[in-house]
Structure formats: C-alpha cells, structure tokens
Amino acid sequence: MSLRAEAHTPPATEVRRFGLVQKWVHRTTAALMGVCVVTAAFLYIPQFAELVGRRELVVRVHECAGLALPVPVLVGLVSRRFRADLGHLNRFGPHDRVWLRGALVRDKRRSARPAAKFNAGQKIYAAWIAGATWVMLGTGLIMWFTHLTPLMWRTSATFVHDWLALTIGIVLAGHIGMAIGDPEARSGLRTGKVSREWAEREHPLWRP
Amino acid sequence: MNSEQPEEPGRPTPEARGTPVGRRVLLGTIGLGALGVVTAPTLQRAMEGFLGAAAGKDPTGLTGLLPNGGGFRYYSVASSVPHRNATNYRLTVDGLVDRPKTYTLDDLRAMPQTRLVKDVQCVTGWRVPGTPFEGVRLSRLLDAAGVRSTAGAVRFTCFDGTYTESLTLDQARRSDILVALRMQDKNIGHDHGGPVRLYVAPMYFYKSAKWLSGITVTEDVRPGYWEDRGYDVDAWVGHSNGRDDEPTS
C-alpha cells in the first residue's frame, strides 16, 4: 500500500466499501429496528392499535426484536474488517470538526465537508444510535421484568423509553431520508462497491 | 485545519490516531438515558402540566400522540372487537343472585344516572384529569338482582370475548363504581369501550373494563385478564402495583 504502488495501478472505476459482514450487520440491524418501530407504532399510536389489537402478541414481538437488536453488531465483532470500520466511526480527526461546522452553517462546498471513510455526521449518528439502543434495551427490560426493580422505576423507564422512541423515530427518518437522497451510498451497502468518482467526491480523505 | 488535509492518495488517514469521540457520544447517550430515568418523576410532572395545557388548545390533536400528551390511549387485548349498539347490546346480571336479568341499552338509560368527575389514572403512568363519567351505579344493579348471602365477589366479562375483571362485593357496592354509558359528556364510543363500560373510579384504569357485557356474582374473586399477568387485584390508585400516584377517588 505504498504511495508509489498505488500511483502505478490503473485507476479502478469501482472501489470496495463494505464486505459481507458489514452488509449483513447493517441489513439485520435495520430489519430488527424496523420490527421494533412498526410494533411500537401498533402499541402506541391509537389508530394503529385499534387496527391491530392483540396487544400481548405485539408486545412479545416488540420485546424479542428489541432484545435481538444489538446481536448483529456483537456477532460482527468477530470480523477484523468490521472492527476496523467501528474504529473509523469512533475516531474523529480535525477534518471532522470542519465537516460538522460545514453542516451547521449549511455550507455545501466540497472543501467544507472533508470526510474519510465515514463523514462526521455518520460517525455521530452511529455512536448515538448505538447508545440509544442500549438505553432502549435497559429501559425496556425494566418495563418487561417488572419484578426486578421497584415499580416506581417502571414509570420512569416508560417515560424515557417513550420519549427516546420518539427521538429515535425522527433521527431514523433522517437517516433513511439521507439514504434515499444518495442512491450510490445505498448501492454501496447493497453491493459493497462504490464508484471511485463518488468516493472521491463524498469521502475525499478515504483511502480504500 | 483545512491545511492539514492530505492531498495525495496513500497518506495514512488522519483519523488513524484521532480522538475517540464516537465512544464518548455513545457513553454520553447511555449516561443521559440513565439520568433521564432518575429524574423522570420530576420531568414527567413538568411535561404533563405543559402538554396537558397545550393539548387543550391543540386543534390538530398531535399533542395527543406525544408521550403523556394528555388524553387516553387505546389498549385492546383482543384481535378485533365487535360493534354493539342500542339494538343488539345486552348486559346480563347473573350468578349468585335471586333475580338474574338482561338489560338493553335503553333499560340502562331509563335508570337513575350518576355523574362523577374524577381523574383517570392508568397503571402505565398516564393520567387524564377531570374526566366526567355517567351511568348507573353498579350497586343499584346488584340490589335489583338480589345478591345472595353466600356471594363475595363480582366478575365482569366483555363482548371482546377476552377481557375479564373482578371486584370484591364490598368494592362493587361503593358509590363511585358505575356501569358507565357516557364519558366526557358523550355516549361512550366503541374505541373507549362503548356502548357500556365499567368505571371503577378509585382504581387503576385496567379495572374499568371496556365493552362490558356480563356481571356475574360469585363466591370468590377470580383474577382478571391483566391480574393473571401480574397486576394487582385490589388496584387502588396510589396503594397498589408499587405506585404512589395521588388517589383518584
């Protein structure tokens, strides 16, 4: 991977962005999150609750999907490349601050949005949704196993669970909206490959 | 900082040794969640006050969708609930009584009505202040049926085919327990358990069975639907289910 060696390879039109593990971790997590959101809507929004009823069954599905939600990521940890991606998501460089400032002032120029494999927005989203998942899991377990904690805790847990669910719903909608707006990013997660042109435009500091 | 961007390919990525901001955001989110649980009672009271006021002035009804946004939540344990109206609704009173009887909706409407205005408290936390309920006192129906001396409890069944509830006979004879026909000064709609539901003012709202269709006087209390699933049978608001809400009646 020396500078010279790269310079002499003919420019490929496609670059590899994600391997099998990353793709499947994302897919299964997305599916489980989808089940959580849909069942939550059935439990929570009166119009949907009236449509579906069967509260016990819906609760059971919601609980199981929620419990399974962190599993794909935990299983993915066996992969070195997946761990490397988590490292990329975790570590922030000076360019990430530039990106965040650019995003805050809605500066869309390329120079205002420097990004390596993941941009600062994706990094913050990943870290936040991971933390939020653990909070939802913790509060969910308190609501589920009512005898583990004093019942007063259940009300408090319900309160946090409800409001965080609403927040996650909004943030998730933003995540999906941005994916809809960038077909190539989506095909990157589907096929694992993106065009070199896209990579250089969206992730100029990324060296695949 | 821009000047630090590497321009040529092949340079190690700048984040190879970056700050672990991601980990901090993750742990911070978890910490905030824990803090939220600890401060929830205070936050919830403040939020209920604010949203309760806002819901009163909100023509869109969107505040009703917010957590604790004021207003009722729809819970049904059955997959679908048949609709009943004045022509096909029946309420039977039977069991350990001398005069079993079946009431139509008009029969119930013709009886003396009692109106109570109290808070509704759900065991999951939401509370709807000052909600009027109107209907026939349960004690009146029991007296009309002639409860036998061996009786000790009352069991309620519902035309959703699934839900059941029960009260001790002493509880059932309280004056703040109604077979309710009206709620919020309207006939009770299907979604709220209409045309007739039970209203047990002093207890958590799961005792107020919706779609009431049967009142059976029994010897002993048989736990109802949610009570088989861990809820308290004697569900006094503020003194059961491990909660300390302000009593409603």
Briefly say what this structure is.
Chain A is mainly α and 208 residues long. Chain A has one domain (12-202): Transmembrane di-heme cytochromes, Chain C (Fumarate Reductase Cytochrome B subunit, Up-down Bundle).
Return residue spans of chain A where pLDDT drops below 50 for at least 5 consecutive residues. Answer: 1-7
Low-confidence stretches of chain B: 1-15
Q: Which topology of chain A does CATH recognise?
A: Fumarate Reductase Cytochrome B subunit
CATH homologous superfamily caption of chain A? Transmembrane di-heme cytochromes, Chain C
| Total of domains of chain B | 2
Gross morphology of chain A: elongated
Q: Which architecture name of chain A does CATH use?
A: Up-down Bundle
Question: Layout of SSEs?
Answer:
The complex is a heterodimer of chains A (208) and B (249).
Chain A: H1 3-8, E1 14-16, H2 20-44, H3 46-52, H4 55-68, H5 71-76, H6 80-90, H7 94-104, H8 120-144, H9 151-180, H10 183-191, E2 193-195, H11 196-202
Antiparallel strand pairs in A: 1-2
Chain B: H1 21-56, E1 90-95, E2 101-104, H2 105-110, E3 114-121, E4 127-137, H3 138-145, E5 153-158, E6 164-168, H4 169-172, E7 177-183, E8 186-187, E9 197-200, E10 212-218
Report on the structure:
The complex is a heterodimer of chains A (208) and B (249). Chain A has 208 residues and is mostly helical. Chain A has a single domain (12-202), classed as Transmembrane di-heme cytochromes, Chain C (Fumarate Reductase Cytochrome B subunit, Up-down Bundle). Chain A is built from 11 helices and 2 strands. Chain A has helices at residues 3-8, 20-44, 46-52, 55-68, 71-76, 80-90, 94-104, 120-144, 151-180, 183-191, 196-202; strands at 14-16, 193-195. In chain A, strands 1-2 form a two-stranded antiparallel ribbon. In chain A, helix 8 (120-144) runs antiparallel to helix 9 (151-180). Residues 1-7 of chain A have low confidence and may be disordered. Chain B has helices spanning 21-56, 105-110, 138-145, 169-172, and strands at residues 90-95, 101-104, 114-121, 127-137, 153-158, 164-168, 177-183, 186-187, 197-200, 212-218. Chain B folds into 2 domains: 15-65, no CATH class; 90-229, Oxidoreductase, molybdopterin-binding domain (Sulfite Oxidase, Chain A, domain 2). Helix content of chain B is 22%, strand content 24%. Chain B is built from 4 helices and 10 strands, in the order H-E-E-H-E-E-H-E-E-H-E-E-E-E. The longest helix of chain B is centred in the N-terminal third of the chain and has 36 residues, at 21-56. Classes of the chains: A mainly alpha (208), B alpha+beta (249). Chains A and B meet through helix 1, helix 3, helix 6, helix 7 and helix 8 of A and helix 1 of B.
